[in-house]
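Quick one: structure for this chain?
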Amino acid sequence: MSDHAVTTALITELARKTGVSWLRFDATTRAAWHLWFDDSLYVVSGGEEQPLPGIEQARRVEVTMRSKDNGGRLLTWVAEASAVLPEDELWEPVTAALAAARLNVEDLSAAPAVGARTTRVTRLRPVGQTVEDPETLEDGAHRAVPPPTSATTRGPLPRILHRRVRRRPRLS
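Got it. Here's what it folds into:
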């Protein structure tokens, strides 16, 4: 099996097993919920969906995926970004798959129509190039300050009553 075939198989396997990847398309890296469908990664942004400002202009995106086993960074690959528009033949099957994969969609049948007005679907197609693979991972942590957001918790954090006291067992 060639290196390209192994890389493609690894991308496919990781994308199917995980729901979040990190996208780098301008000077920042952002976490994004995704769906693997039709040999490409699809992300939804805009409207009430995840904010990915600047993805509209991106043509080349670096996608970092983590290991499902230990949560560590495993692979960074290069994708060609393109918009999926309502008039495209891919629109209907992709938006149906995206809506079905969501956990908090109120009206599943109306989701694609609402999405056509308020959101953007971006297709990230692998071009066969990797930036990092399991054999060439950098030692750096890749930590970054999260981008500012208006998201908050819905209320106060829950209180824990009657904490269990852990005592050492008596030896004699």
